[in-house]
C-alpha cells in the first residue's frame, strides 16, 4: 500500500448529476489534475517548485524501505499526500470526499464517525448513521479474510500501518460509492467493501480524507469494479509543469489500441497488491546491460517479476550494482561534463543549448515489450539550468512515474498483462 509523494499530487474532479446511472456502463474516464497546476483547488502561487520536487524525491526513496513489513496491512511509504486525489461520493445520500488514488494500495478507507481518534481534514467526516445503505460486515462474511481480522464487536476489522508509524483502524463495511466521469454520467456501485476508519493518526494531510486502493488484490477497488470494467484501467500522466489534466480510465475506455501498443505480462507475489514486471535488460543507446539481480522474495521462478511498476514512486529505483552500470554507460555516451549532483540524484549536467539532443535513448526491455525513454523521461530539472538523471540506486527495483509520463499505461487484471503506448497525454 502506498502514499504518493506530495509534489505530484493530482485531483480527480467530477460533476455529480441529479440522477446517477447504475453500474451498467462498460467504461468511463476521469480527469486528473496536478496538485501544483493552476487547475488545482490547492494551487499556491507562492510555493517553490524545486523545493516541492526535492521533497517528492525524498519520499520516493523512502517509500520502498518497508514493502515487506510484517503488519496486517502495511505501506512502504510515509503518510504524506498522494499523487492523485480521487473525489468520491460515499453513502445514500452521497457525501463527497477527496481520497488518495493509489496503485500500491489494496484497501479503500475513509475517516468515519464515531471518531475515537482522527486527524484534521478539510471536509466533514463520514457519518454512517446518515447513510441508508451503510452495512458493517460480520466476521462470518466472505470478505473477512486475511489480512482482515475479526474484532471484539464481531464485525470484520482492518488495520493499516504505514512506514512512518501513521495508521488507520476501523470496521469493514459495504456502502454505495459514486464515481463522476468525463462524460457527465456518474457511475454508482451499490456494494463496495471499504474501511470505515475510527482510529486514524500520523502524518496524513488535512486535504486527504482516506485512500482509494487500485492495487493488485481482491480488496482493491479495481477488482470490485470488475463486473463493470472487466478488470481494466489505464492512466496517462502529462509531463511536469503542464497545466493540462491527466486522465484515468476504466473498462472499455481503458483498452489500448492502434499501432505502437506493446504488452508484457505482470506477476503477483505475496503480498498480492503490487504489479511486478519481468525486466530482462536495459539498453543505453546500442549498449545492452543484462538485469540478473533478484530483488524481491517470491514463490514463483526467480525470473517471474523482478521489478514493480508503480504510479506513485517518482523515480525509477534500481539495485545499486546494476544502477552503477547504467550510470557509467550513460556518462560515457555523453560528451558533456557532469556538474555537482543533488542529495537524491548524483548525476547532473548543465542544461546548455542542445544538451537534450545529446541524451541517449534508454530502453527497458521487459518480456515481449521494449519501453523507450528519451530526455523527457530520464532528465529532471532540479533548478534553472540544471538537469539530473532521474534514476537512483536502491535495494529494490521500482519503475517510477517519471518514466511513465507521456505514455498511456493500461492494466488488465483478468489477462494479467500491462500494455503501454507512447502518447501525448496532454491531448489524450
How would the global form be characterised? globular
Q: Give the helix/strand class.
A: mainly beta
Main sheet characteristics? 6 strands, mixed, barrel
Strand content is 35-45%
Signal peptide: 1-23
Keywords: Aspartyl protease, Glycoprotein, Hydrolase, Protease, Secreted, Signal
Subcellular location: Secreted
GO molecular function: aspartic-type endopeptidase activity
Descriptive account of the structure:
- One of its GO terms (molecular function) is aspartic-type endopeptidase activity.
- Residues 1-23 form the signal peptide.
- It holds the Pfam family TAXi_C.
- With 428 residues, this protein is mostly beta strands.
- The protein contains six helices and 30 strands.
- The chain has helices spanning 49-62, 221-224, 226-229, 320-333, 355-358, 375-378, and strands spanning 10-13, 21-22, 27-34, 73-74, 84-90, 95-102, 109-111, 135-136, 149-150, 156-161, 167-179, 187-201, 210-213, 232-236, 246-251, 262-265, 275-277, 279-284, 287-290, 307-309, 316-319, 348-350, 362-366, 369-373, 379-383, 386-389, 391-394, 398-399, 407-412, 417-422.
- The longest helix is centred in the first third of the chain and has 14 residues, at 49-62.
- It starts with 9 loop residues before the first strand and ends in a 6-residue tail after the last strand.
What labels describe this entry?
four-stranded antiparallel sheet, 428 residues, globular, disordered N terminus, mainly beta, 30 strands, 6 helices
Describe what is shown at a glance.
This protein has 428 residues and is mainly beta.
Amino acid at each position: 500500500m502506498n502514499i504518493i509523494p506530495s509534489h505530484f499530487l493530482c485531483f480527480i474532479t467530477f460533476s455529480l448529476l441529479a440522477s446517477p446511472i447504475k453500474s451498467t456502463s462498460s467504461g468511463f474516464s476521469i480527469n486528473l489534475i496536478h496538485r501544483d497546476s493552476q487547475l488545482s483547488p490547492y494551487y499556491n502561487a507562492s510555493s517553490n517548485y524545486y523545493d516541492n520536487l526535492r521533497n517528492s524525491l525524498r519520499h520516493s526513496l523512502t517509500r520502498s524501505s518497508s514493502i515487506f513489513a510484517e503488519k496486517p496491512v502495511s505501506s512502504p511509504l510515509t503518510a504524506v499526500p498522494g499523487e492523485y486525489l480521487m473525489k468520491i461520493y460515499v453513502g445514500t445520500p452521497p457525501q463527497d470526499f477527496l481520497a488518495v488514488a493509489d496503485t500500491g494500495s489494496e484497501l479503500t478507507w475513509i475517516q468515519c464517525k464515531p471518531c475515537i481518534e482522527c486527524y484534521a481534514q478539510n471536509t466533514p467526516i463520514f457519518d454512517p448513521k446518515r447513510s441508508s445503505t451503510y452495512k458493517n460486515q460480520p466476521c462470518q462474511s466472505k470478505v473477512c479474510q486475511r489480512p482482515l481480522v475479526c474484532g471484539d464487536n464481531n464485525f470484520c476489522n482492518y488495520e493499516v500501518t504505514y512506514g512512518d508509524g501513521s495508521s488507520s483502524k476501523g470496521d469493514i463495511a459495504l456502502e454505495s460509492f459514486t464515481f463522476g466521469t468525463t462524460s457527465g454520467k456518474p457511475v454508482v456501485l451499490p456494494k463496495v467493501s471499504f474501511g470505515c476508519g475510527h482510529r486514524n493518526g500520523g502524518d496524513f494531510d488535512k486535504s486527504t480524507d482516506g485512500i482509494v486502493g487500485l492495487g493488485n488484490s481482491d480488496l482493491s477497488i479495481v477488482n470490485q469494479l470488475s463486473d463493470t470494467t472487466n478488470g481494466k484501467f489505464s492512466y496517462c500522466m502529462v509531463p511536469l509543469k503542464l497545466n493540462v489534466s491527466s486522465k484515468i480510465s476504466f473498462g472499455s475506455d481503458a483498452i489500448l489500441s492502434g499501432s505502437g501498443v506493446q504488452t508484457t505480462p505482470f506477476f503477483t507475489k505475496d503480498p498480492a497488491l503490487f504489479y511486478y514486471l519481468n525486466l530482462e535488460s536495459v539498453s543505453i543507446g546500442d549498449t545492452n546491460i543484462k538485469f540478473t539481480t533478484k530483488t524481491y522474495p517470491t514463490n514463483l521462478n526467480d525470473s517471474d517479476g523482478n521489478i514493480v511498476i508503480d504510479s506513485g514512486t517518482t523515480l525509477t529505483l534500481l539495485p545499486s550494482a546494476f544502477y552503477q552500470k547504467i550510470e557509467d554507460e550513460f556518462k560515457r555516451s555523453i560528451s558533456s561534463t557532469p556538474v555537482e549532483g543533488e542529495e537524491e540524484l548524483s548525476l547532473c549536467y548543465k542544461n546548455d543549448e542542445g544538451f537534450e539532443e545529446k541524451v541517449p535513448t534508454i530502453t527497458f526491455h521487459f518480456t515481449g515489450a521494449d519501453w523507450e525513454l528519451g530526455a523527457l523521461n530520464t532528465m529532471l530539472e532540479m533548478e534553472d539550468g540544471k538537469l539530473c538523471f532521474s534514476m537512483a540506486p536502491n535495494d529494490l527495483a521500482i519503475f517510477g512515474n517519471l518514466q511513465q509520463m507521456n505514455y498511456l499505461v493500461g492494466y488488465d487484471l483478468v489477462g494479467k498483462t500491462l500494455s503501454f503506448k507512447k502518447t501525448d497525454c496532454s491531448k489524450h
